[in-house]
Amino acid sequence: MGGCPNAMRGGREAGMTLILGLESSCDETAAALVTGDRRILAHRLAGQEAAHRPYGGVVPEIAARAHVEVLTPLVEQALADAGVTLADVDAIAATAGPGLIGGVMVGLVTGKALALAAGKPLVAVNHLEGHALSPRLADPALAFPYLLLLVSGGHCQLLFVEGVGRYRRLATTIDDAAGEAFDKTAKLLGLGFPGGPAVEAAARAGNPRAVPLPRPLVGTAEPHFSFAGLKSAVLRARDAGVHSAGDIAASFQQAVVDCLLDRTRRALAVADGATALVVAGGVAANGAVRAALADLAHAHGLPFVAPPGWLCTDNAAMIAWAGAERLAAGLTDGLDVAARARWPLDPTAEKARGAGVKA
Amino acid sequence: MELVIDTATAACSVALIDDGRIVAERHEVVGRGHAERLVPQIAELTEATPACTLVRVDCGPGSFTGVRVGLAAARALGLAWGVPVRGYTSTALLAVSAFAREDALDAVCVALIGGHGEMFVQRFARSPFAAITPLASLLPADAALSPEPLVIGSAAAALVAARGWGEAREDLPRAADARLLPPPWGDLPPSPIYGRAPDAKLPGAA
């Protein structure tokens, strides 16, 4: 919990919109206040890592229990940090899906009740749109359209972002998300939870070429991602008993980087008019992933945009920002809006082989 | 003026209470639609009403999601209005409702559908209003040892079937009946009462 590098105190100028954002779709509970001119007045986050760590992954029921206890205190703290009251807020933005439905409902109903009591509009935000637009919060120069690699514990997609609410899905995972593969690898290697930072740390001491691991779907004509086979190969490598955890971690991370690069390169070829290559989502906090994507963007003569690490993992500032963008576009929602466990950003996208329909 | 929210069961129920008197109420059996229906219901109720000075909410046990929807709304309204939020148990509410309706009733057993084939059971006495047993999650065979002829709540029929005698009534909690709760039954902290620990098992645990 606590401050962020660009947090500011003391309110805002007259006429500038102020959005309260709420996030509770997975294992983070968060509240943030963001202005229409990209100032993050407050952001508060209560992670549940300690509660989930013994299980080696996020347990939906435990996540759902935690959100309801901490969300309103977080909102109070965020308002105090920013030196504002609900009356100063122009809209309430809350994640309405996709995600663990029990948590989503807590945040959405909290947002509805705050909107009702304060007499403010509600903006029901797609969590993925929060990630997709977060680079524009971090970088005012980032213009539509751009190619986005959204890579997190729940999602792995390539999206052509044409504008607010306008997304074309170019690729998705047909089995696990990349972040899920990191978590499962960390669990297999006994590195702890959350897996992303643990694998990255272990990989520093390892040789990325020591363990031969597959690169599922790399080089194929189909545009999608696949990580389930990679996870199984990690299990076999571990059970072979001849490799160090560091070597397996480093080789796994390299395999993920190779998959992400190959698929992103393929998408760049069809992303006509893209002004930048953008990465968002929790896996974008991985240094090796960032470095490789920066090189790829450079090779294509495109700027590479990656929000700071805290804005890549789940947070409420990105939800507030997506709320600001939607409010500016005149998009608000009724108090009867439903929470959605599954909510694709591009509902017209063809269903990928083997993939679920959650996003 | 007090706003009462009860979404712990299949009912989505809200009421405005002033000095023990029902000013307005909405009571709908929605099943699972609380997250969509609750806040519009509150909007209908509070539209033409002077400010509320207290929010009271059913903390459970009951529907895992419903309990948290009600608490999320109650806590948020408390924050936005700057008023206290208090809670009560679904079992106590059902018991006071039953006593209010039936003068001859001296004791009642409340049984709600729990998890894993168990039921949440609590027994109450009328005068003075008191819990005879603490809230417990019981298998039907153990729940069947309850001696009260009348059993109420979502698991009432199952308990009476397991016991082989008595009367079962599937009452749903009604927010307006919170006015009947004697202190301190309506003054719990606004936190969920799940009635069971999480189902998740630690890796390697039995």
TrEMBL record, chain B:
Which key words are in the record? Answer: Transferase
Give the transmembrane ranges.
none
Ranges for domain Gcp-like: 28-122
Q: Which Pfam families match?
A: TsaD
The terms under GO molecular function for this entry are:
transferase activity
Query: Out of the domains of life, which is the source?
Result: Bacteria
| Keyword field contains Transferase | yes
Q: InterPro entries under this entry?
A: ATPase_NBD, Gcp-like_dom, T6A_TsaB
Location of region: Disordered: 179-206
The record's listing under SUPFAM superfamilies reads: Actin-like ATPase domain (SSF53067)
Q: Which protein is depicted? A: tRNA (Adenosine(37)-N6)-threonylcarbamoyltransferase complex dimerization subunit type 1 TsaB
**Pro residues bias located where?**
181-192
Q: Which GO terms describe its biological process?
A: tRNA threonylcarbamoyladenosine modification
